[in-house]
Amino acid sequence: MSSATYGILLFYLIAASFSPLITAHLNLTLPHQHPYPESVVQQVQRKVNESIERRQILETVRENKCPTGNPIDDCWQCDPNWDKNRQRLADCAIGFGQGAMGGKGGQIYIVSDSSDRDTVNPSPGTLRHAVVQEEPLWIVFAADMVIKLKHELIINNYKTIDGRGANVHITGSGCITLQYVSNVIIHNVHIYNCVPSGNTNIRSSPTHVGWRGKSDGDGISIFGSRNIWIDHCALSHCTDGLIDAIMGSTAITISNNYFSYHDDVMLLGHDDKYLPDSGIQVTIAFNHFGEGLVQRMPRIRRGYVHVVNNDFTHWQMYAIGGSANPTINSQGNRYTAPDDPNLKEVTKREDMDNGQWDEWNWRTDGDIMVNGAFFVPSGQGLSNQYAKAYNVDPKSALLVHQLTSNAGVLGGPRDNSMSMSKGGTTGASSSGNAESNSGDVNLFGMIFSGAGASAASLQSQTTTLTLLAFLIILTLYLTITNQDGQLSIPLLLLI
Fold first, then answer.
1. What does each C-alpha distance from 216 to 157, 195, 224, 241, 475 come to in angstroms?
2. Alpha helical stretches, state H, 61-169
3. What is the number of structural domains in the chain?
4. Which H helix or E strand runs over 11?
5. Is 473 domain-assigned?
6. Of 3, 268, 323, 444, which residue is least crowded by CB atoms under 10 Å?
7. Known catalytic residues?
8. Burial of 21 per CB tally in 10 Å (0-12, 13-18, 19+)
9. How confident is residue 417, by pLDDT bands cut at 50, 70 and 90?
10. H or E stretch including 40?
């Protein structure tokens, strides 16, 4: 038999063995990819419009509890006692990452020690000790603190880093890594001055320590992960990307963040020829793209990105770029071009001429163009697969400034300008840098019952599905691709 025949037989043997697990996923192009992205887009815009209408009603009766109309903030911030139920935040995500549970249902873990001395045996009370635990955890901070990482911080499944109520700064070597994990929420922290590091052992769970090569120096690196939500953070001054999502990562929402002072802001997709990145689906909403930014807000390969109600106030090359036929759906954003007459275009197709990209599905719907900015759309006359994505009225376009007015970290400077002016440190209180004695400090706060066991069970099931899907995709890719890396039509029909 040929290698292709062996590959097909192996596919059917695996499918037959695990058919109860994969039946529900047969309508997906790739594992964990939403089959109808346009429905997610519509849902996002409906929530925005509902929040704006609610705000307008409250204004008529002179109530100002929810002044912005931002649906994420309205979900939890309108409650003056939000701190009594922090885990309510997990119900507030929108878009492709709305399924991110984080540590919902788990215990509250209180970080009381800002040190990061040992990447193999982290001290209880440190952020590193919290994020590698197996069980779902909702991680909060006892005081203001600057956490200077020794090496990259590898986060385990089902974790929420919740910086509300404290002034939390994460900086140093490696910064934050999400690799082959799911259900992570990162909220309300400053992330900056991240530099490459590695070539050392780093713990990723209570039972696993692995050798790590040199990292890229990303602020947040998302690698082969899903159900991720990054909200109300301030990111700047990193060596590589501020946020990179690659190697088949999907189901991601990036919202309410303040980006500044960086070149390659956000990369979505590993390589033009890496087929699993066709399943990347990301919502980018209510962010402020501010001073000192150059490009990649984002730059996407193959996947689908919904860019909605962001304020782009600065770029030195372009705002949104892509390659390998990604779908870009831009709705209700404000693009303010620089004064340079050669830098007015919002979009950039990487290394392609018109004949190659004119069928790519790039849309602008209700965007506001300022100072000569212009968006070059493409894809007229394509299939109706994404048609519904363009039929939602983006009523919020004229309210972009209001929707993004709280972008960045809440409760203090929204961006990292104060940190940069002090050479990468902050005026954090001395108590934030105090080291804990694990014998005297209770690291865990309130226990929320019920959801912990189900989250662990879900994690086990999704891990099995992930491994299965990887085997199937790898087998098909190795055995039924031609020399150009494209799937042949006859074998697609077999699948």
1. 22, 7, 16, 8, 29
2. 71-77, 127-131
3. 1
4. helix 3-17
5. no
6. 3
7. 296
8. middle
9. confident
10. helix 37-60
Count of positions (residues) in the chain:
495
Contact present, 56 and 399 (Cβ < 8 Å): no
pLDDT at 335 over 90: yes
Side chain identity at residue 463, one-letter code = T
DSSP state of 103: T
Tokens of 171: 């900086």
Q: 250: which residues sit within 8 A by CB, 6+ positions away?
A: 30, 32, 33, 96, 226, 279, 280, 281, 282, 303
Q: Cα 300 to the chain's mean position, in Å?
A: 13
pLDDT exceeds 90 at position 191 = yes
Q: Is residue 491 part of a domain?
A: no
User: CB atoms < 10 A from the CB of 398, how many?
Assistant: 12
Residue 381's domain comprises 95-433
What is the tens place of the pLDDT at every residue in 81-108? 999 999 999 999 999 999 999 999 999 9
HEC string of 431-480 equals HHHCCCCCCCCCCEEEECCCHHHHHHHHHHHHHHHHHHHHHHHHHHHHHC
Would 80 be classed as within a structural domain?
no
CA 349 from chain centre, in angstroms, equals 23
CA–CA dist 128, 175 (Å, integer): 11
Q: Classify residue 290: in a domain, yes or no.
A: yes
Q: What is the CATH number of the domain that holds 428?
A: 2.160.20.10
Which strands sit side by side in the sheet containing 226-231, from one edge to the other? 362-365, 327-331, 304-308, 281-285, 250-255, 226-231, 182-187, 159-162, 137-141, 107-111, 444-447
Q: Which of helix, strand or coil describes residue 199?
A: coil
Tokens 């690698």, residue? 223
